[in-house]
Design brief:
single chain; about 350 residues; alpha/beta; 8-stranded parallel beta sheet
Length: about 350
């Protein structure tokens, strides 16, 4: 197969930051995706509708001239989130979900939720107004092995949320484990999951074998090969509960290559090409369009896109950097390229 035509895809989980970084990365997302769910973990976090609308305007101003890309805004769930703010979000035409970060789980999550049970009235309101809850599904217990944090979160917290709020739409973001796949598969159609390109393409050897490679470090962290294979099977299965969410997370190179080692992989520069490579390796390119273009829109109750993109089968070398951001697969060969 030398070319592949797809209904234009959407990215249901992306970080575009703010300021100079936003100006660098937003064009990468907009060149391939019609819409994207924008993560709210800025400093300060986007916690109100008013802040989300201001952030949306900044994104629109940073887009290339003539772009019709649509940023879909989210609010950062905190211990102080109110039922009234949920109502405002439901009434806004530009806010599509709330994002749950357990406090301390990942980049800029210090303002996250420390006691979810105290917010059950807020989750009840989200269920009432049919606003999805997007979850970074990891515990932050210092005694829990980092490779077990997703599984333990499902056991301790997510199972209880689903039981308490059976009509709440939930996306378990960037799933990384066989256990997460099994949970989503066995749950009701209110439960879905996004899968990133790095978790389809790599296991934890990419970070640790032959020396520590910080540009493959993300949270949730890459897992064992058996978990990668479970993710590939889910993504390529045609099951509409699993759809594209890059979790593309730009960090300046010097913030990745230091003692901090910020978590996140930058994939937006060629996200759909990375997914195409993963699906081709699984001999499942026929399932890429559903995963990338249909299932997320259906879950969010939005119309499917009608424009198309064309992927061409040709090798090209990924640049070493994009304005001080080192991309996933820097200096390596990708086998697919969007036809411009």
């Amino acid at each position: 197969m030398n070319s592949l035509t797809l209904i234009q895809p959407d990215d249901w989980h992306v970080h575009v930051r703010t300021g100079a970084v936003l100006n660098t990365v937003i064009a990468h997302t907009a060149r391939q995706f019609a819409r994207a769910i924008i993560m709210p973990n800025l400093k300060p976090p986007v916690t109100t509708v008013a802040m989300a609308l201001d952030y949306r305007e900044e994104i629109l101003q940073a887009l290339p001239k003539g772009s019709d890309f649509q940023p879909l805004m989210t609010l950062y769930l905190t211990n102080q989130t109110t039922v009234e703010e949920v109502k405002k979000a439901a009434e806004s035409e530009h806010v599509y979900a709330f994002k749950l970060y357990p406090a301390g789980a990942t980049t800029n999550s210090d303002a996250g939720v420390s006691d979810l049970t105290a917010l059950y009235s807020v989750l009840e309101a989200m269920q009432k107004y049919d606003l999805p809850l997007l979850i970074h599904g990891e515990v932050t217990d210092a005694n829990c092995d980092i490779f077990d944090r997703e599984r333990v979160f499902i056991e301790r917290t997510l199972t209880a949320i689903v039981k308490q709020f059976p009509d709440l739409r939930i996306v378990l973001e960037h799933v990384t484990t066989e256990e997460a796949v099994q949970f989503v598969e066995s749950a009701s159609n209110k439960i879905a999951a996004t899968i990133t390109p790095q978790h389809l393409l790599y296991n934890r050897n990419a970070i640790l074998a032959g020396g520590i490679r910080p540009h493959y470090y993300c949270l949730p962290i890459l897992k064992r090969e058996k978990h990668r294979l479970a993710l590939v099977k889910a993504a390529t299965s045609g099951n509409p509960k699993f759809f594209l969410g890059t979790d593309s997370a730009p960090h300046l190179t010097h913030t990745k290559e230091n003692a901090c080692g910020c978590a996140g992989c930058y994939s937006a520069y060629a996200a759909i090409e990375l997914y195409a490579q993963a699906f081709e390796q699984a001999n499942a390119l026929e399932h890429l369009e559903g995963f990338a273009s249909f299932y997320g829109a259906d879950f969010y109750k939005l119309p499917r896109n009608t424009k198309t993109i064309i992927l061409e089968k040709r090798d090209w070398t990924v640049p070493a950097s994009y304005d001080e951001i080192t991309p996933l697969k820097a200096n390596e060969i990708l086998n697919w390229k969007i036809k411009q």
